[in-house]
Write a structure and sequence with these properties.
Low-confidence stretches: none
Shape: globular
Structural class: alpha+beta
Oligomer: single chain
């Protein structure tokens, strides 16, 4: 059965790696043919493969059909919705998911933002809102978070924001589902008891699966130490709840029924408790996996059937994929099943049992600690490829932190917190006592997490065959039994991956990375030993910036720890909005600005025509503005030319026709290989003077997806194309990377959205 389950998994995974889905007729044919092939043992693996492909493909097709049509992007509509998630409050904005009521023309699930709401919506409430809807879309940068994939996995067919209308109101008298009321009550009780601090956030996450209170700083600490899994209601939590209920039920029944065999009754109580906890916590994929495994194992015991662990895992995998084919897209699905598989293999190969002469308590504890250490290292090695591939980061301290934190968290914090949450109503004071006790263990666990740290990995987005083979080597420690030669290669491979960083360009070359930051601009320029950043991208109305969500993660993935030259073309929010977050997040050397920016104080110098410097064979030259000129706003933009040999790159900021004509008149403009089209392709820029003077091979436009200004203007893109340029828009291509060298000139251009296109990728911008 294990072989068949893996074939089903492979087939169901395949649609996720396609740029587009095949015709639904082919998907239905796969499902119809599968049982016919399955009648023959020889073709049964292929039957499971086709079944998985058909089920996942049809489910993906259904979700795509539910998404908001691109023609309705930006549509304003009034709709009644039921809030189906705990709202996340972040500075001035509240974000939540909701299900439209009585609107079959809309996707079944929406993700909405509400800036300065009249009242904070609560889980289960019904609201009448005026919203402006958008097609699911996010940044697409090398190694960046795939927001579109996350929306697809969550079944969210549209995003949008609530209009500031007086007609937004809560619909009183509507029924709140009982489960939502219970989850809200527990979450509120924890917030009151612990004064809404980070302990309340963690306890809400592990009791009711509500992670809305966990701050970005907390998530970063958990990610750095490899303990993010503690914030999800995992299979281990479900198992602890079911196991605790089993023991308590057996003990209580034993007091009444004497020595009768009460195992079956206790088993049913354990499964019932695990089911209740899984439902209360939001029924996430790892919880479903654990509950399904527990139920199957309990049935086997009740019917007196022996079920091998591998067969149990395979049967669970098959049932879960058939019930929800797209659940496998969740990182929790893959990590949950992989962790169980690793533990089963490790327990069978490496964990020893106490021998008869090891009766002393100290000896038994020594063996237990050794076994726990072996299991932790096995998990470290076995999950290493998945963790790196999924998150692009890995904590070398994870096994050491987890070996201490896990027992505290799972033996003390979680059981006591669950008991405290259950003791409610008249027993609430007693329950609060249990919650306070759970807090003591939580304090210790959080203190250990705060004391640890890690570094991100840089190369997970572009895994070649050679790097993939190195990435998989740590699994040798799981696959090969103890004593076999070659197992120590696992540690060497992990060290190699952790220490690996993308090689900088050689001397005489410069790499440019035009990041996808929406309606704004941010370009990373890297030579062999230096890094410059041209603009920081926009800031957002509800807090945060493109620097936080796009620029800094990209720099971390590239292993860049310092920006030698920061150039802020001018002070507009779409170019300088990420300045605060950038300076807080990375060391910055010299700062040049096209116009004075108050937040920088004296830590800035004017960008002046004639300024130039040379890095590793690449020359950087400022063309505009000249000293003592009175340009303001867009026309004050710093214009930078980067030259390597006879090849040039021109960055223009937001200059408009007066500056373009002035530069052309003064012969400051030269033929360039790559030109960043001014002002996002606005009609006020890209004059014939600029186009004729530069005659680029590539004209890059950094613009937001279907932005409200209609940029780039069609007349502008046509003008560049008539001059022989290949026009590339970041709204369609995502982040763009290319290398320019003295000898070889421009090398192959890489557009992130085209390179990693998946079925959930949005349609072209225009």
């Amino acid at each position: 059965m294990l072989k068949f389950s893996l074939c089903l998994l492979a087939g169901a995974t395949l649609p996720a790696y396609l740029a587009g889905l095949p015709d639904s007729g082919l998907l239905w044919a796969s499902i119809v043919i599968a049982p016919l092939l399955g009648a023959s043992g020889r073709w049964r693996p292929l039957a499971f493969l086709l079944l998985g492909f058909g089920l996942a493909g049809l489910d993906a097709s259904r979700r795509l059909d539910e998404r908001l049509d691109v023609g309705r992007h930006g549509e304003r509509t009034a709709v009644s919705v039921r809030v189906d998630s705990f709202p996340e409050a972040d500075e001035l904005v509240v974000r939540f998911t909701a299900r439209p009521i009585g609107r079959p023309d809309l996707p079944s699930r929406l993700r909405l933002s509400w800036y300065m709401p009249v009242a904070t919506p609560a889980l289960g409430e019904t609201w009448r809102l005026v919203v402006r809807l958008r097609v699911p879309h996010g940044y697409a940068n090398p190694g960046g978070f795939d927001y579109e994939g996350w929306l697809f996995r969550a079944g969210i067919g549209a995003t949008g924001y609530v209009e500031p209308e007086r007609h937004n109101y809560r619909i009183h008298g509507s029924d709140v589902p009982r489960l939502d009321r219970i989850r809200r009550h527990v979450d509120g009780r924890l917030a009151r008891l612990f004064e809404n601090d980070e302990r309340a956030a963690v306890l809400s996450a592990v009791v009711v699966g509500a992670r809305h209170r966990i701050s970005r700083e907390q998530w970063e600490r958990f990610a750095r130490t490899g303990t993010s899994h503690l914030m999800a209601v995992s299979g281990l939590h479900i198992g602890l709840a079911g196991g605790s209920a089993f023991v308590v039920a057996w003990a209580l029944a034993g007091l009444v029924a004497g020595r009768r065999n009460l195992r079956d009754l206790a088993l049913i109580a354990g499964v019932a408790c695990a089911t209740g906890y899984a439902v209360l916590s939001g029924f996430a994929v790892p919880a479903r996996r654990a509950l399904l495994m527990a139920a199957i194992a309990a049935l086997a015991v009740l019917f007196r059937r022996r079920l091998a662990p591998a067969r149990l895992l395979a049967l669970t995998l098959i049932l879960l994929i058939v019930a929800d084919p797209l659940a496998l897209l969740s990182p929790g699905f893959r990590l949950s099943f992989a962790a169980v598989a690793v533990l089963l293999v490790s327990a069978g190969q490496y964990v020893t049992t106490n021998s008869g002469n090891m009766s002393a308590v100290r000896s038994r504890m020594s063996v237990a600690v050794k076994q726990l250490g072996v299991l932790q290292f096995s998990l470290l090695a076995g999950l290493f490829p998945l963790v790196v591939s999924e998150f692009g980061r890995f904590s070398p301290l994870a096994p050491f932190v987890n070996v201490i934190v896990l027992p505290i968290f799972n033996v003390l914090t979680v059981p006591l917190a669950l008991a405290g949450a259950l003791l409610d109503g008249p027993l609430e004071p007693l329950g609060d006592g249990f919650l306070v006790l759970s807090d003591h263990g939580l304090r210790l666990a959080l203190a250990l997490i705060d004391a640890a740290g890690a570094r991100p990995l840089a190369w997970a987005d572009n895994v070649t065959a050679e790097r993939l083979s190195v990435l998989l080597l740590p699994m040798l420690v799981i696959v090969r039994p103890a004593g076999w030669p070659g197992r120590r290669v696992a540690a060497i491979a992990m060290a190699a991956v952790i220490a690996d960083r993308p090689a900088p360009p050689p001397p005489g070359c410069v790499d440019y990375h035009a990041l996808d930051v929406g309606q704004g601009l941010s370009v990373v320029l890297q030579t062999h030993r230096h890094v410059a950043l041209f603009d920081t991208g926009p800031a957002f109305r509800g807090g945060g910036s493109a620097a936080r969500f796009a620029v800094l993660p990209f720099l971390a993935r590239r292993g860049i720890e310092r920006i030698d030259e920061l150039i802020v073309s001018h002070g507009d929010l779409d170019h300088a909005g990420g300045l605060r977050d950038l300076i807080r997040g990375i060391r910055v050397g010299n700062v040049r600005v096209g116009e004075s920016i108050p937040v920088l104080g004296r830590a800035q110098q004017a960008c002046m025509a004639g300024d130039r410097w040379t890095w590793d064979g690449a020359e950087f030259r400022v063309l505009h503005p000249r000293r003592n000129t009175r340009w303001r706003g867009n026309n004050a933009s710093c214009v930078l030319e980067v030259t390597v040999g006879n090849h040039r790159l021109l960055l223009t900021g937001d200059i408009e026709s007066p500056v373009e004509k002035l530069l052309a008149h003064r012969d400051r403009l030269r033929a360039a290989d790559v030109v960043f089209v001014p002002h996002h392709g606005s009609r006020t820029s890209s004059t014939d003077s600029l186009v004729r003077a530069t005659r680029p091979e590539i004209a890059l436009i950094s613009a937001g997806f279907r932005n409200r200004w209609g940029q780039p203007a069609e007349a502008v893109t046509d003008r560049w194309r008539r001059a022989g340029a290949r026009v590339i828009n970041s709204a369609e291509a995502g982040g763009i990377s290319q290398r320019l060298c003295v000898d070889s000139g421009p090398q192959e251009l890489r557009a992130t959205r085209f390179a990693r296109r998946r079925v959930w990728s949005p349609p072209p911008a225009r």
